[in-house]
Amino acid sequence: MILRIFFLLLMFSPFTASAEANPELWPYVKERLFQDRVINEADFLTISGPRRASSGAQVPVTIKLDTPKNIEMKNVFLIIDANPTQLAATYQLSKHSQELDLSTRIRMETDSFVRVVGEDGNGKLYMSAIPIRASGGCSGYMDVHDPELTTDLGKILAKTKDRFLTTRIKHPNFTGLQKDLDSGGYIPRWIVEEIIYVSNEEVLLVAKNRISMSQDPYLKFKINSGTKESINIMVRDTKGNGFTKDVSI
């Protein structure tokens, strides 16, 4: 409990907004998410992004995984040390996504290390991390009354090119930390929490999102060469809304 209180104080300290990425946060984040499990460095799992983001609300990051033949990866966790909710997304992998090349856009509240942790089928963990400078992405103002935020709610924009599938989902993705200036209260959390990609009745990839994903969630990944004809995209948000789209390859 003491560690948790200390960690929360670090998160909401007024000095964190202008601070550089703090490596001292990771032990507390690691303990909460993975307890005492060993995490290994791995050259087959990497994350990349800008050193300084132009907007804390739309920070591009790319995860690459080239799984060795003697390992089968099960999950990939996207983590932002200094965000109010550190786990940004969990990507559940299949045999079709062991060679992963995935790009997405995250929200960052302040400068932070951004990490990718991979978990194999035996529970072994691997990690890569980078520092990124950004601010204001999680609690920045959004006009809850702006009709543009919900026009075409759930519309899935999708395209395929050079064996990559790019999707963008029309959704405000309210974090629960943004203030409504009219009422003075917080806008309730409302996010896209699950995206499932299926081809030929086989799951390719499942994205389990948290509040650190950007407005109008964006995801681009490389399609396995064995994927057939079309991909069905299924989306669910925290209000129980469901959206779907079929994409020809």
From TrEMBL:
SUPFAM superfamilies to which the protein is assigned, alphabetical: E set domains
Leader sequence residues: 1-19
Recorded superkingdom: Bacteria
Keyword Transmembrane: no
Domain Sulphur oxidation protein SoxZ: 166-247
Pfam families xref list: SoxY (PF13501), SoxZ (PF08770)
Annotated keywords: Signal
Keyword Metal-binding: no
Domain Ig-like SoxY: 31-138
Name of this protein: Quinoprotein dehydrogenase-associated SoxYZ-like carrier
Species of the source: Methylophilales bacterium HTCC2181
